[in-house]
Amino acid sequence: MKPFWVLLSLCSSLLYAQQGKDSSPLAMSEKELADSIGVWQVTTEFLNTDGSVAKVVAGSYAFEWVVPKRVVMGKTAIPELDMAAGILFYINEAEQLIEMVSVGKDGKLWVMTGPLGQNYRTTKPFSVPEGKERQLRFTRYNVTSSGFESKMEYSDDGGSTWAPGNHQVFKREG
Fold first, then answer.
1. Which domains, from first to last, does the chain contain?
2. For 92-108, how does the pLDDT look when each residue is reduced to its tens digit (9 = 90+)?
3. Which secondary-structure segment (H or E) carries 32?
4. What is the pTM of this model?
5. Minimal CA–CA distance to 35: which of 122, 92, 98, 101?
């Protein structure tokens, strides 16, 4: 009987240790939203097709809750480019998606969608002046409590290959 109680105690300890450390896709996306709250200083490197840096600009992002654990609103600004945009970042639990929408002064609405629990989102294909269909992919990585990196890539072949677009480094303010 003694080994049974030892095993039961060990299992109970493991279950207790896992409480608060939910690694379900929904919990991971809820954490991503929560981690985005605050003000961020951001350095954006616009990249050439070979990955070399074409231009570097500084800007900011700021996020706050609209609906806790589900909807975040934000704004971004890059003064050097006279660019500003409004953002909604949200979980669509019914569809098992995490989405971000952004619109700037040009009125173009960008919708970036990815599966819950993942660090990437893509846009639907859209037409570009060269007559091609393009798609964007945004990936978040190197995540810490005080910062993270993001890369934007684009595809002109339905997602078979991806070329570099930009690289961003987010540093939490304060």
1. 22-172 (2.40.128.20)
2. 999 999 999 999 999 99
3. helix 25-36
4. 0.84
5. 98
